[in-house]
Design a protein that fits this description.
Blueprint (H helix, E strand, L loop, with lengths): L1 H25 L11 H7 L3 H36 L5 H27 L12 H4 L1 H15 L3 H11 L1 H9 L2 H21 L2 H18 L3 H14 L3 H17 L1 H10 L7 H24 L4 H19 L1 H16 L1 H23 L4 H19 L1 H21 L1 H14 L2 H42 L1
Organism: Streptomyces griseoaurantiacus
InterPro entries: DUF445 (IPR007383)
Keywords: Membrane, Transmembrane, Transmembrane helix
């Protein structure tokens, strides 16, 4: 009976401590250690639901203790009755009551040892949750990492969800495609608005310059020119140039003759200079006219050979390639080129922003059509769904395998940051009611076991 009274006193002290902690919290005094992390706050603060659960635990404790007291009283009374000669039945009842007390006390010890030292005694392997909290957090993190963040589990779960099929069916709905298009347009417009033109221009200009400097352009130009000449693609350009040259000579004949006369020596007669100028103009006009009208003109052939030789030099001649590289560097270094890059970015940015804002712009219409087409293909074509599922699974597997340690450390660090006392109280509030049934069951099962053992022993003794 003294042990039973001591158990009741300990449980009453626990209830009073809980009420005091509640009063301190209601007065604004945070219980235990407080930190800035929200997980720690949530474990240190008892909500109304937690308080209701704690009241339920106290009621269950009272019920389990009352059952223990009941079997203790029954044991005392039946033992007295047996000594008083009340009959053989008292032995059976006393044996059942005695075993029920043993079972109740053993289960009380086991349940209490999870959360605190029974009777306040520092018995080894008791107060498991507060003393082993950090180790439990590490074990929980390892368990989650091994059983929930493994590649097979992630792939199997995502494959069962069928993201490709669901996403395809969702995107195939026009209203959903409109919504995604609007969100993408808003995000694009916001990103372009936040970006500073000077920063983008500097990055684009530096990227273009670096890429151009890193790659020699002469061989590529030579190959392109070689293909153009081989295909005769330059002949139209020659036709345009010769035709325009002919028209210019017809309109500016006097200018050509004046230029020739102005370059003549001063001692020659003027009429001779005029005759020479006229002759030069006529020959030049005849040459240009024949070159325009004769596809097989020797000058055209000479131009073809020149371009062919130049294409070969661009690819193989060291001096020619070096000259082209120097020219490239000079062109890229000019301020006009950088201004052109800046103006090009500004124009592209304004065009994209305008297209993103206009619901009927070609950009948004094409994005919407692409989303609808993608949704229909994902919903109707197994290969597309499998490809999308593979991408999603691959990305998820990469994340969990690459950052598994960081994910599990979130669990272990969070548990390590919890206050041991309040963590114990919160866990007990959530599972303590079910644990009290263990005490009740232990009392009942112990009583039945004791009765059975007593019956067997009496039968064997008879």
């Amino acid at each position: 009976m003294e042990v039973v009274e001591r158990v009741e006193r300990v449980e009453r002290d626990e209830g009073k401590a809980g009420e005091k902690a509640k009063g301190a919290r209601s007065a604004g005094a945070p219980p235990g250690r407080t930190t800035g992390a929200s997980p720690v706050r949530s474990m240190n603060v008892f909500s109304a639901a937690d308080e209701e659960k704690r009241r339920g635990v106290r009621r269950m404790k009272a019920g389990a203790t009352a059952l223990l007291l009941l079997v203790a009283v029954v044991y005392v009374l039946t033992t007295w009755a047996e000594h008083a000669g009340a009959g053989a039945w008292t032995g059976y009842v006393a044996a059942a009551a005695e075993a029920g007390m043993v079972g109740a006390l053993a289960d009380w010890f086991a349940v209490t040892a999870l959360f605190r030292h029974p009777l306040g005694l520092p018995i080894p392997h008791t107060a498991i949750i507060p003393t082993k909290k950090d180790q439990l957090g590490v074990s929980l993190g390892e368990f989650v990492g091994e059983n929930f963040l493994s590649e097979d589990v992630v792939r199997g779960r995502l494959r069962a969800v069928g993201i490709g099929s669901r996403l395809g069916a969702w995107l195939a709905v026009p209203e959903h495609a409109d919504r995604v298009t609007a969100e993408l347009a808003t995000a694009l417009r916001g990103a372009l608005t936040v970006l500073r033109d000077s920063d983008v221009q500097a990055v684009v200009g530096e990227a273009i310059t670096r890429r151009a400097n890193a790659q020699e352009i002469a061989p590529g130009m030579g190959k392109m020119l070689e293909r153009i000449v081989a295909d005769g693609g330059h002949r139209r350009s020659v036709d345009v140039i010769v035709s325009r040259a002919h028209d210019w000579l017809v309109l500016h004949g006097d200018s050509v003759m004046d230029a020739v006369q102005g370059g003549a020596p001063g001692w020659t007669p003027r009429f001779v200079d005029r005759k020479v100028g006229e002759r030069v103009y006529k020959e030049l006009l005849r040459f240009v006219t024949e070159m325009r009208d004769m596809p097989a003109h020797p000058a055209r052939g000479a131009l073809d050979r020149f371009l062919t030789d130049f294409a070969s030099d661009l690819q193989s001649d060291t001096e020619t390639r070096a000259r082209v590289e120097r020219l490239k560097g000079e062109v890229l270094g000019r301020g006009e080129v950088q201004d052109l890059i800046a103006s090009a970015w500004s124009a592209v940015r304004a065009m994209i922003v305008s297209a993103a804002e206009d619901e009927r712009s070609e950009l948004r219409l094409r994005v919407r059509a692409s989303l609808l087409s993608l949704g229909e293909r994902m919903a109707g074509e197994a290969k597309v769904r499998e490809k999308v599922d593979g991408w999603v699974e691959g990305a998820a597997v990469y994340v969990v395998t690459t950052y598994r340690r960081e994910i599990t450390s979130l669990i272990t660090d969070t548990v390590a940051g919890w206050d041991a006392e309040h963590t114990t109280r919160k866990i007990e509030a959530n599972i303590g009611r079910d644990l009290q049934f263990i005490r009740i069951n232990g009392t009942v099962v112990g009583s039945l076991a004791g009765l059975l053992i007593y019956m067997v022993s009496r039968a064997l003794g008879a």
